[in-house]
Amino acid sequence: GAMEAIDIAINAEMKAEEFYAREAGAVDDAELKKLLMQLSGEEHGHYELLLAERGSLAGNFYWFDLDSSQFLED
Q: What is the pLDDT of residues 11-68, one digit of tens each?
């Protein structure tokens, strides 16, 4: 079901974040390292959003705890 699909996606995002971070640690080129760390950060953001979605489906309101106000009005 939906929860299982989200769990698979959460795991994939976590692995992608770890991959990019690990590769960033293995390169010497500063620009490539910066790009890989940026990609790792983006994957972490996806991971956090999926956690929030899973919480929402489970009846929790985890998304209120996200450290972002981009979805909120001023």
A: 999 999 999 999 999 999 999 999 999 999 999 999 999 998 898 888 776 555 555 5
Which among 42, 64, 46, 62 has a CA at the least distance from the CA of 54?
62
HEC string of 37-73? HHHHHHHHHHHHHHHHHHHHHCCCCHHHHCCCCCCCC
53 CA to centre of own chain: 12
Residue 15: half-sphere exposure toward Cβ, Cα within 13 Å? 6
